[in-house]
Design brief:
Layout: H1 3-12, H2 17-36, H3 46-56, H4 59-76, H5 79-93, H6 110-117, H7 124-130, H8 134-144, H9 148-160, H10 168-176, H11 182-186, H12 190-204, H13 213-225
Helix pairs in contact: 2-4, 3-5, 4-5, 7-9, 8-9, 9-10, 12-13
């Protein structure tokens, strides 16, 4: 483990000493697990990570440890492990998360929601599961008879809705104002998000208010922490 480099990276990300220490401990724990199984961090596979979560960690620790490891995987550019950590973490936390109904999003055609509901896709969780890859979105478009643009819009809205407090109206505002991907929220400042959404509401007469400063900060911070679940 490149501990010195990782710590320096985390400091540049403005993480607290406590967070850095916890993440380093998470990586060391995973590294010890790998050594016991005859491999290393450099050679670790998705299967190794899944085994670590299932066989080594207490269930209540899985989500936090995967979150900690995600920072290291992002630092070393191990995208395959970063994605696996995100999926593993999401599996642990989604059971306690109430999924938002697709028909609850502002501007969604009820007929479109009904067609998807008939296929068992009626909420954000199921939408993300059914539309996480381009191929799966194409297949869902064909099965539902809905244009691919409708499917992609609902996947993007569902992805935004993973942010706490971003649901029917707020997800639509972010989407319509141009922040239709988590990646776009990750790369914007709170000041810019506020300015753009305020201007959009004023210009279009959007039936809703722009986010408050603390809400904008929270949305961006959360977007940076959430693992990627959708392939574009």
């Amino acid at each position: 483990m490149d501990e010195e480099g990782f710590v320096s990276y985390m400091k540049k990300q403005r993480k607290t000493e406590r967070t850095i220490s916890t993440c380093v401990d998470n990586v060391k724990d995973f590294e010890d697990f790998l050594k016991q199984h005859g491999t290393s961090l450099e050679k670790a596979s998705k299967h190794d990570l899944e085994s670590f979560a299932a066989d080594h960690l207490e269930k209540k620790r899985v989500s936090k440890v995967m979150w900690g490891l995600s920072h290291y995987f992002r630092y070393v550019g191990a995208d395959h492990l970063l994605s696996a950590a995100g999926r593993t973490r999401e599996t642990r936390v989604k059971a306690s998360r109430t999924s938002f109904k697709l028909r609850g999003f502002r501007g969604v055609d009820p007929k479109h929601a009904s067609r998807l509901s008939a296929l068992g896709v009626d909420n954000t969780k199921k939408m993300l599961e059914a539309g996480k890859t381009p191929l799966m979105r194409d297949e869902l478009s064909e099965r539902s008879g809905l244009d691919i643009s409708v499917i992609e819009e609902l996947v993007r809205l569902s992805d935004l809705a993973r942010i706490q407090g971003v649901k029917g109206i707020r997800a639509r505002l972010y989407y319509d104002a141009g922040f239709d991907l988590l990646e776009k929220l990750r790369n914007v400042t709170p000041e810019t998000l506020l300015a753009v959404t305020r201007e959009f509401v004023k210009r279009t007469g959007f039936d809703g208010i722009a986010p408050l400063p603390k809400e904008a900060q929270s949305a961006i911070a959360t977007a940076k922490k959430l693992p990627d679940l959708v392939e574009w």
